[in-house]
């Protein structure tokens, strides 16, 4: 049994849905999931579709070629088609261990549909955690002086392992435009505030100073503009005057873990589409 | 422009989606919304679809007839097809005014897609509110002795006004099996607890006694078994030992208002399907 | 039985709590509530205390005088002492009715410990609602030209009725520094966003554009700097790409009602203290 | 510097607060935290107080003796006094690893004020996790036949290590009345539902079947009656018809981790008092 997932967006037009479902039907596919969204402000049509093909000689590549020629061209679609294989995720970390523990715990228990070929860090602190989960750990220090060189090492590792997407699990370095350009909407960051409130560094300190009654965390794709990329998921929790900055940080860690894990799951299940710096998240 | 909404459920089978979208296409309809769900435990397929027809001579009745013959019969579907007209809601109340104020405020501001031909109450207390919103108010007292008679009066009003669905906005009488049978999955109740916790009367007192840290409210369709019908929406809020029973009741009122209004909106937008005492809620 | 509520803040020092409880004890008072908070960043002590006095000749004024001389002076306290009478609230509204309906509904049902001598509006639209609740409604239009004159009319009404605090229930004018100076930390506003995200006008439009997954509302005291006063309460709710701006506005209305009502209750129950633009909220 | 925490409950009476604060003052203590609660239904007074003593010859034991004689006797108080030392926690686990990983991760990062002398399990599965955190792991299988013997082994370990409290981190055995009697309100369990909904085994399956829109988790002290002990904390999260039972279980794991960790923190910070099967949770 072959299963593929199709993501499409294009200008909203008549008969798109019928055309797509007919196309699948002609290829003897059975649609097992279909969902669509129309952004009425911008007149953009989005669709997510899963289809199964029982035919022995089904080829995802041939399907893609036919889809491109007969359907995508006609409606001027942007599209992606995925077969049912686990994406490869590279983990970037620094010194904070809570998101790392959380993701590896979920990975170990089989909760995540992905592979983790390696972990990259600019510090050595978390190597023992990587070791206890038997995942290769590459220590690539980053300084002002060696920035380009460090990045090239990262890129080499990413390419050699055919990495599909990157997760910055509280990685405390700003990634370069070059890396972002190579992995557009494929680098997931966790920001420790309810964006767009408190962009930049030390958001819990800022939240404390402002006296907010709720704090949050935001997972988003990394774009050139800092903390301004498309939001994938957000979570919040109540705080009060009784909480110190340390309390906010501790409560925040719980949010960060869950919000980042949600983003990873949505991404690997191909549920996220991006358009005009916003996400469409299919259920 | 004619717009219809189609709700379908049937045994999951191959090619359902393609068959339906083809059928719409042949009728020169343009699908503007499609969403589906498969309950894998029970192997049931659910679909919600909105379609627009520009043809001058489109008739919803003719479409229904054709749908029934050519499509529904083939897949053994349960189906409903709605044209784009406001459903008629009857409001049943007793003495509590918060849900009544809330629904009428929303109605007045144009937030709700429905008409309210009248309000029925077993008490006179809320008549002045109905008056201030210019909605007819029928006082039908209910006692042990007059129960059948009172119910017949209710049924007469409901039928004379072609009521589509009933909302029990803290109506403090148990509705009869006869009424339920006439309006299956068309009577919406708000229960002041997080069902299935604290079924029956005085749930806030029970919650207080049990020392729970969160209280809730539940909107559901009324079925013969008390407080056990299909859940449409639920809401919760935190409480603590500092809250008295009166505090829980006050906090609960806010939940009840929002959870009931959500249920009314979901119902009138034809987003709810019921199967095996559970709801499928389309987005 | 006489009951008073005492709010204190001062530099944190040894023996404050014992000194205060002794003082009350000497006056033959019985402490029925005591809570305190120390802001360790700024070394400030906050306390809220309720005490009952059974003596026939108890005088709040005499108690205040003695408290000031013997206790407040010694510890250099900022303090307020309230006897158990309902504060007078002035309601300022414009065209949106949801917060008005909500507050008046709560007022009518006895949920709020306050009096509402009148409602002021710069538009006539909501007069009929005020009428249906039998509350005087003053229409004071505000234009660029008559701004000072309009404000003087407002101030005259506020003073003539001995108003204790003001609630801006979606009042669409910026109040002047003069009014703010007369009612410091006594003007409560509801901002329709999760501050400090989306300050200024049209926050739901901004939230929609940014693609956030959660929207919020914030009640705060009004200060000279727009949308930057001490936060009293905040609430949030989830949204998704399926929600239009109108949906966000509708969902936001529910948040605004609850968050504003919470702030009013906290204020009238003397549970809020302000220091350095932040609130301490006692339970 | 000596710091103690005092927890008291007794019948509500006049002058309790002044008597306690005076007593501390006479002992030259400085009160750094005081909070109280009166249960008006049952007329019970609760207090939590932290005090610091600078005197060189301060002895917690002597203070306790004096407190007992001069204060507790007079007001017929139930009381506990703690000095500032880390309580010892025994972890009981079975096969699920998520709560174990979570607690040990927090423990490692210094977030928890406690010591973990050992982990007990009725299965060997999680030994490697205990090893990677360098915590002794005792495998004590439990069968119908060896139940008493197994329990005696557990009790011996608990006593030899002076264990203060026990955490059942998804321990899949029912603990005996003997153990409960030795550790009253000192055994914390995490139940994977929003109690009192779905008591007993397989709550996620029950929640799925009932079609609830929100699932929860509950941490509570273990009492003889199953799943009916005093609730310490509860958490909830939204679910929909799109979630399978496996999805509910996965979402539930995140709740369980946070709700159990919260309970452990509240317990070790001596913020929890129990009366009549309900908790008072100080802030």
Question: How are the strands of the biggest sheet of chain A laid out side by side?
Answer: 7-6-5-8-9-10-11
- Count the E strands of chain A: 13
Radius of gyration of chain A: 21 Å
The arrangement of helices and strands of chain A along the chain is: EHEEHEEHEHEHEHEHEEHEE
Q: Give the largest interface pair and sizes.
A: A-C, 32 and 32 residues
Can you count the helices of chain A?
8
Mean pLDDT of chain A: 95
Whole-number total of structural domains of chain A: 2
Model description:
4 copies of one chain form a homotetramer. The first copy, chain A, folds into 2 domains: 2-83, Alpha-Beta Plaits (2-Layer Sandwich); 88-281, Rossmann fold (3-Layer(aba) Sandwich). With 283 residues, chain A is an alpha/beta fold. In chain A, the strands form 3 sheets. Chain A has a 7-stranded mixed β-sheet. Chain A has helices spanning 16-26, 60-75, 98-108, 127-132, 147-160, 177-182, 203-210, 245-268; strands spanning 2-11, 29-39, 44-53, 78-83, 88-93, 115-121, 137-139, 165-168, 187-191, 214-221, 231-238, 272-275, 278-281. In chain A, helix 3 (98-108) packs parallel to helix 8 (245-268). The first copy, chain A, contains 8 helices and 13 strands. Chains in contact: A-B, A-C, A-D, B-C, B-D, C-D. The interface between A and C is medium-sized, with 32 and 32 residues.
């Amino acid at each position: 049994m072959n299963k593929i997932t199709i993501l499409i967006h294009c200008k909203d037009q008549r008969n798109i849905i019928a055309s797509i479902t007919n196309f699948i039907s002609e290829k003897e596919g059975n649609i097992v999931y279909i969902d669509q969204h129309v952004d009425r402000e911008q007149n953009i049509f989005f669709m997510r579709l899963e289809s199964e093909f029982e035919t022995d000689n089904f080829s995802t590549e041939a399907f893609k070629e036919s889809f491109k020629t007969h359907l995508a061209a006609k409606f001027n679609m942007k599209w992606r088609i995925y077969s049912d294989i686990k994406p490869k995720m590279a983990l970037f970390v620094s010194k904070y261990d809570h998101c790392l523990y959380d993701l590896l715990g979920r990975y170990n228990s089989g909760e995540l549909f992905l592979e983790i070929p390696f972990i990259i860090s600019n510090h050595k602190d978390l190597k023992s955690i990587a070791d206890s989960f038997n995942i290769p750990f590459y220590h690539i220090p980053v300084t002002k002086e060696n920035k380009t060189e460090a990045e090239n090492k990262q890129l080499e590792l990413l390419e050699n392992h055919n990495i599909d997407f990157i997760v910055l699990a509280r990685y405390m370095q700003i990634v370069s435009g070059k890396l972002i350009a190579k992995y557009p909407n494929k680098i997931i960051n966790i920001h420790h505030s309810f964006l767009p409130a408190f962009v930049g560094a030390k958001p819990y300190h800022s939240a404390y100073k402002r006296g907010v009654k709720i704090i949050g965390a935001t997972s988003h794709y990394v774009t050139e503009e800092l903390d301004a990329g498309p939001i994938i998921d957000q979570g919040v929790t109540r705080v009060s005057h009784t909480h110190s900055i340390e309390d906010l940080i501790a409560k925040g860690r719980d949010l960060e873990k869950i919000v980042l894990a949600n983003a990873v799951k949505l991404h690997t299940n191909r549920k996220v589409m991006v358009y005009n710096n916003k996400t469409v998240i299919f259920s």
